[in-house]
Design a protein that fits this description.
With 241 residues, the protein is α/β, with parallel strands linked by helices. The protein has a single domain, classed as Rossmann fold, CATH 3.40.50. The protein is built from eight helices and seven strands.
Length: 241
C-alpha cells in the first residue's frame, strides 16, 4: 500500500533534504538575505547585541544551548561571547552537526545530535534563531515545552523569529529555499506557546528595520525596538524558580 504525503509534509521533507547539504548552506541562505545587502554575520551580530541588551548584567551562564544550530556559526559566536560557559550546539540535521564539528572548534563548544540532547539538562540559557517556523505546526507546542524542560529553574530563553509583518522578510523567505511553504510565526502566537509551556515573558523586541542601502538610518533602530515592523523579533523569557 502506498501512502501519499500531504503537500505540507512533502514540503517539510524537501526542506530537510536542503538542511542536510551543509556545504551549500550559505549560498542557499544568501538567496534570501542577499536582498538586504548583508550577510549572515551581520544578522548574527545584531541578534547577539539584542541578547546582551536584554540579559541581566549580573548573568553568568555556565551552560548554553544553541537549539537548531545549523552549521554552527552562532554557536561559535556564543562560545567567544561567553568563554567561561559550556556551549552546546544541537540540530536535527546530522550532516550539519558533522560539518559544525569539523569547522567550528572552540574549547568550550560541543555539537550534539537532537537525539542526544535528552542527556543534557539544566541549561542557564537557551538560544534559538528561526527554528520554530521550520517545525510542523502540530509539533511546535511540544518542542517549546521540551525547551522548558531542559532549562534549569530561573534559566533564560531567547527565541528569534522572522517577522511576518515585515515586507522585506516576506520577500526574503519567499526567495530562500529553506523557507518554501513554511507557516510563519507571529509574535503573539509564539508568546502564547511559551506561556502555555510555563515560561514567563520578560520582553519582546524588534530588530533589522533598514537594509544596507538605508544603513544611514540604523542608529534609529535602538529607538524602534518596540515598533513591530522590524525584519525579525526576539522573545525573551525565563523559567520560574
Amino acid at each position: 500500500m502506498i501512502i501519499a504525503l500531504s503537500f505540507i509534509e512533502a514540503i517539510f521533507f524537501s526542506m530537510q533534504e536542503l538542511f542536510d547539504l551543509p556545504d551549500q548552506y550559505d549560498s542557499m541562505l544568501n538567496k534570501g538575505i542577499g536582498i538586504t545587502g548583508n550577510d549572515k554575520h551581520f544578522f548574527i551580530k545584531g541578534r547577539l547585541e539584542m541578547l546582551l541588551q536584554f540579559l541581566p548584567k549580573e548573568f553568568k551562564p555556565k551552560q548554553i544551548l544553541d537549539f537548531g544550530c545549523g552549521t554552527g556559526s552562532t554557536s561559535m559566536e556564543l562560545a567567544e561571547l561567553f568563554p567561561l560557559a559550556g556551549i552546546i550546539g544541537s540540530d536535527v540535521s546530522a550532516p550539519s552537526i558533522e560539518y559544525a564539528k569539523k569547522y567550528c572548534k572552540k574549547e568550550n563548544l560541543r555539537f550534539v545530535d537532537f537525539n542526544e540532547l535528552s542527556g543534557f539538562e539544566n541549561f542557564d540559557l537557551v538560544y534559538l534563531n528561526c527554528v520554530i517556523h521550520h517545525i510542523p505546526l502540530q509539533d511546535r507546542q511540544a518542542e517549546v515545552e521540551r525547551l522548558f524542560s531542559v532549562l534549569k529553574p530561573g534559566g533564560l530563553i531567547f527565541i528569534f523569529e522572522n517577522n511576518p509583518a515585515n515586507p522585506g522578510t516576506q520577500l526574503a523567505m519567499f526567495t530562500n529555499p529553506f523557507d518554501k511553504g513554511v507557516v510563519k510565526v507571529w509574535p503573539s502566537d509564539l508568546k502564547k506557546m511559551m506561556i502555555q509551556a510555563g515560561f514567563k515573558i520578560r520582553n519582546c523586541g524588534f530588530i533589522f528595520y533598514f537594509p544596507q542601502w538605508l544603513s544611514v538610518f540604523r542608529p534609529l533602530e535602538k529607538h524602534l525596538i518596540q515598533l513591530p515592523l522590524g525584519g525579525q523579533y526576539g522573545v525573551f523569557a525565563n523559567k520560574p524558580e
